[in-house]
Amino acid sequence: MSKLLKGKPVAQALLAHATELTAQSRAKPCVAMVRVGDDSAALGYQRSASKVLQQVGIEVQPVELDQQTNLSQLKQTIERLNHAPEITAILILEPLPASLPAAQVQELLDPAKDIDGNTRVNLGRSVSPRPEDLVPLTAAAVLALLDFYQIELRGARVTLVGDSLTVGRPLANLLLDRSATLTVCDSSTTDLAAATRGADIVITATGQLDLLTAEMVAADAIVIDVGTNYDAAGKLRGDVDFAAVSQKVRAITPVPGGIGAVTTALLAERTAQILSRAERD
Ligand SMILES: Nc1nc(=O)c2c([nH]1)NC[C@@H]1CN(c3ccc(C(=O)N[C@@H](CCC(=O)O)C(=O)O)cc3)C=[N+]21
């Protein structure tokens, strides 16, 4: 049985900092959460993120729009939030309806309020990140967890499975910035198992249930599961066949209770930081 790399203790440290900053601020930070339609992944994230934000004293303003909302209507809403002084940060929940191009919609955000780090400006900052940058949030959560458990990246053979614009690409940048020896795989990779077997650290961010099986990993590997999928029974599961892989490897993140918990805590810490910096400057 491997060591469990739990997200909870990582999240606790981030949430304690968020609580402290929020208590010191004159105004109350507020996150606008924009949801279009009723997708279950968007709803699930809205629910867990709202709970965590409110726990540390951050207000949440849900902005719930009809499934039929068009791009120009959504643009109006986002521009209003960009200019609203009481809104500290804006999160546009994905997936959006197919009629709305997600990358184009995220690009409407003021990069200074783009808490999830989806605008091209914030994506670009992942190439050479500074501590105050809003680099893509889930990618930053992976680094926060690796750092908390003092997992060395310099010279480590890291195989990243998944090259999405929201997670894989920025995460690749953050890993390269730490001098990892990086392999990036996607759905076109011809021999995925060869790439994962040779890795000291395997990171999955694909949205494919049970993509990573025990035969695909070395016994001394560290496995980081960024996936959030729902199985046939409606249970939250990652990309990794956890039952089998956790019997074999050195260390592994659980789902739930792994990267997801760090992501929501980092969301809270960042929001508190935006307001506290604005009040200081
Ligand atoms: N613009 C945008 N950015 C996202 O980052 C984004 C998104 N849209 N849409 C949906 C997916 C999914 N996602 C999750 C993050 C944390 C948990 C999370 O907090 N999970 C907890 C438990 C939650 C539970 O038990 O339901 C855990 O893993 O321990 C779940 C899912 C972010 N996503």
From TrEMBL:
What catalytic activity is recorded?
Answer: (6R)-5,10-methylene-5,6,7,8-tetrahydrofolate + NADP(+) = (6R)-5,10-methenyltetrahydrofolate + NADPH; (6R)-5,10-methenyltetrahydrofolate + H2O = (6R)-10-formyltetrahydrofolate + H(+)
**Domain (Tetrahydrofolate dehydrogenase/cyclohydrolase catalytic) ranges:** 5-116
Q: Is the keyword Transcription assigned to this protein?
A: no
Signal peptide location in the record? none
Keyword field contains Oxidoreductase: yes
UniProt pathway annotation: One-carbon metabolism; tetrahydrofolate interconversion
Domain (Tetrahydrofolate dehydrogenase/cyclohydrolase NAD(P)-binding) ranges: 136-277
Please name the Pfam families in this protein's record.
Answer: THF_DHG_CYH, THF_DHG_CYH_C
Q: Which key words are in the record?
A: Amino-acid biosynthesis, Histidine biosynthesis, Hydrolase, Methionine biosynthesis, Multifunctional enzyme, NADP, One-carbon metabolism, Oxidoreductase, Purine biosynthesis
PANTHER family in the record, alphabetically?
C-1-TETRAHYDROFOLATE SYNTHASE, CYTOPLASMIC (PTHR48099:SF5), C-1-TETRAHYDROFOLATE SYNTHASE, CYTOPLASMIC-RELATED (PTHR48099)
What the entry lists under HAMAP family is as follows: THF_DHG_CYH
Q: What is the name of the protein in this document?
A: Bifunctional protein FolD
